[in-house]
Amino acid sequence: MSKATLFSLPGSHPAMTVKLMLDFKGIEYRTVDIMPLMHKAAVRALGFPGTTVPALKFNGESLQGSVEIARALDRMVPEPPLLPADEEARKKVLIAEAFGEAELQHAVRQILWNAVRRKPRSIGTFLKGSNLPLPPSVASYTSGPIIWGEYKVNNSTDENARANLSALPGWLDRLDGWVAEGVLDGESLNAADFQIATSIRLACTLQDLKPFIVDRPIGKAAFRACPDYSGDVPPALPAEWLAPLRESASSAAA
């Protein structure tokens, strides 16, 4: 089989999901990073049907989206599998994967861009390991239009960020439950592990959120599945927005 080419954005958690799955499968690949906001036109120009990343060219196919790519990888390289063979276990993993892709992924993205807009120089910390021809120090001072564009495109309003933060304690409880049940963080990692771990790791790049996540079962599971994730956003979010997380942590400690 040919070497894969992954088109990505620096710091993209869905793209990191695909990288983890490619590593899991032992598939050789190269990463091509695209400038944020410019990627929509770029991936169409590269022959993909949609405008999103991650976008993967592999074995003569053009694939987009972390879930579609996961299914295609299992079809083309069956071992090791990303989904369990047992029907009931497979169903639970698919439910967890869908939650990670459809709900958690964008919620964390909205929180992130709201915080980065408040701490714009932090954007350079997400470029570690990127192959964009833009030094992090330069990005920290010149990325204002990109930050504003991502904030608008992702609808990262104060209202949405705060609503997501209010929902986060319940989501973390659900994820901890899946870890306890073995749906996540089992002996062999699965598609849901890779889908969810990257969103949790992205959340942990925010200093506001990391203390509430890192020592939880899902935090430990995320660091196992995704040991390395670049990015560091100093405290940025209003204290009252974090009240649900503080209250949840206090209740758990009581």
In short:
The protein has helices at residues 13-25, 39-45, 66-76, 87-118, 136-142, 144-153, 158-181, 191-203, 210-213, 217-225, 243-253, and strands at 4-8, 29-33, 55-58, 61-64. With 254 residues, it is α+β, with helices and mostly antiparallel strands. The protein folds into two domains: 4-76, Glutaredoxin (3-Layer(aba) Sandwich), CATH 3.40.30; 87-253, Glutathione S-transferase Yfyf (Class Pi), Chain A, domain 2 (Up-down Bundle).
Protein architecture, described:
The protein is α+β, with helices and mostly antiparallel strands and 254 residues long. The chain folds into 2 domains: 4-76, 3-Layer(aba) Sandwich (Glutaredoxin), CATH 3.40.30.10; 87-253, Glutathione S-transferase Yfyf (Class Pi), Chain A, domain 2 (Up-down Bundle), CATH 1.20.1050. The protein has helices at residues 13-25, 39-45, 66-76, 87-118, 136-142, 144-153, 158-181, 191-203, 210-213, 217-225, 243-253, and strands spanning 4-8, 29-33, 55-58, 61-64. The protein has a 4-stranded mixed β-sheet, covered by helices on one side. Helix 4 runs antiparallel to helix 7 and helix 7 (158-181) packs parallel to helix 11. The longest helix has 32 residues, at 87-118. The mean pLDDT is 93.
